[in-house]
Automatic annotation (TrEMBL):
HDOD domain ranges (all copies): 210-395
Pfam families: EAL, HDOD
PROSITE patterns reported for this sequence: HDOD
Protein name from the UniProt record: HDOD domain-containing protein
Superkingdom in the source lineage: Bacteria
Length: 411
């Protein structure tokens, strides 16, 4: 499960890249916002004049899977006025990018002229942090999306901003949606796009327990944590669930393993995959198929788990599989809509894993915290346990891996 560092992906060690989903009213992902850090404050090095290097970004950060199918989504890319006026727009497919114009003081005639020209050429623009400032009004006719930080405005202000924007027929994006209450509030005011961490905030329901199908998976996890477990003993549990049996058989031939084999039995499949990997997939089965939960939450959990595992491997920490479990399960409360302590009491995991999730202690908790900062673009809070390029490669690999896994789970 190790990953080789691809030098072609590390053209500039000063840049870190991550992405944040943009949702619609149904909580389906409509686009991704590209987060980046660059020492120069300029666009990432990958956004050069060469279409090949620019496509690397689109192929890693604008791709998602749903219902077993891969699709390309628009990518929000931040752009300063100075970049726009100096003709620094990257050579990217116009249908695949929405340039996010950062709010700056002063709207010049030159800026408006350039925006009109670019819009006529098929480019799309988003205005970030719109506040209703009269100086920003001339921009509204030229915008595709208007982004409003809902944490900065009370209800009366939000209503006024939304009503003012309606005649311009722009998409209204609610930013900083931190909870389900925030989501419902923005929805009521007429926003149709949403960005924030609201999918990762659980509704607290004490005492919630797993159903019978989940109980079987818990039995499987308990057996996998038994030092005396064998492929045959695991098989005796798996065969009680036809759906689980089918999924494990498919795993051996999936893109996530890339080891096409003729399978003789369930125990043979388990032996090929390996006990650690079966443990990982059993946990995925536990989390998949939760009614009403957006696919994106599962994707985020997979990305986090895989990136924790990869960083542990790069740092030569023991038992990287446990780091995967910590990262994956760190959002179990959001998936199951109940308190983390209640959920972990029902899962037969080592105490060190549970403590890392609950209190961020030990090496596993430290890596989890590091990955959380990375995925949110909180670059200044990172401890930088590795050089920057390693984070970039691990994150990019985790995006691709998560989509492969989702495709396997949804087939």
């Amino acid at each position: 499960m190790s990953i080789a560092l691809d030098e072609n992906m590390l053209t500039d060690g000063s840049v870190l890249l991550a992405r944040q989903p943009v949702f619609n009213k149904s909580q389906d992902v409509q686009a991704y916002s590209l987060l980046y850090r660059s020492d120069s404050g300029m666009l990432p090095a990958e956004f050069s004049d060469e279409q090949a290097t620019a496509s690397v970004i689109l192929n890693n950060y604008a791709v998602a899977s749903s219902d077993g199918k891969t699709k390309h989504l628009p990518l929000f890319v931040k752009l300063t006025q100075s970049m726009l006026l100096s003709d620094m727009l990257p050579d990217l497919p116009r249908e695949g990018v929405i340039f996010e114009l950062l709010r700056e003081d002063g709207i010049s005639k030159e800026l408006l002229s350039v925006l009109r020209e670019r819009k006529s050429q098929g480019y799309r623009f988003a205005l970030t942090h719109y506040t209703g400032d009269k100086g920003q009004t001339p921009l509204l006719d030229l915008m595709y999306v208007v982004k409003i930080d809902i944490q900065r405005h009370d209800d009366a202000e939000l209503k006024q901003l939304v009503n003012f924007c309606k005649p311009y027929r722009v998409h209204l994006l609610a930013d900083k949606v931190e909870s389900q209450d925030d989501f419902r509030r923005a929805l009521d005011f007429g926003f149709n796009l949403f960005q924030g961490y609201f999918l990762c905030r659980p509704v607290s329901i004490k005492g919630k327990s797993f159903g019978s199908a989940k109980a079987l998976i818990l039995e499987l996890l308990a057996e996998l944590n038994n030092p005396a477990a064998t492929a045959e003993s695991v098989e005796q549990i798996v065969i009680n669930d036809p759906a689980m049996t089918y999924k494990i058989l498919r795993l051996v031939n999936s893109a996530a393993f890339s080891t096409p084999k003729q399978i003789e039995s369930i125990s043979h499949a388990i032996s090929l995959i390996g006990m650690d990997q079966v443990k990982k997939w059993a946990t995925l089965f536990l989390l998949s198929g939760q009614s009403g939960k957006p696919v994106e939450l599962t994707r985020v959990m997979l990305i986090r788990g895989r990136m924790c595992e990869l960083l542990a491997e790069m740092l030569s920490y023991p038992q990287p599989i446990n780091f995967f479990m910590v990262g994956l399960l760190s959002q179990l409360d959001a998936m199951m809509d109940t308190e983390m302590q209640v959920l972990l009491d029902q899962i037969p995991l080592d105490d060190s894993i549970k403590n890392a999730i609950l209190t961020r202690v030990n090496q596993m908790g430290e890596i989890l915290t590091e990955v959380q900062h990375y995925e949110r673009g909180e670059w200044a809070d990172m401890r930088n346990l590795l050089e920057r390029p390693y984070y970039e490669v691990a994150y990019r690999h985790s995006l691709n891996w998560a989509d492969q896994v989702l495709a396997s789970l949804q087939e």
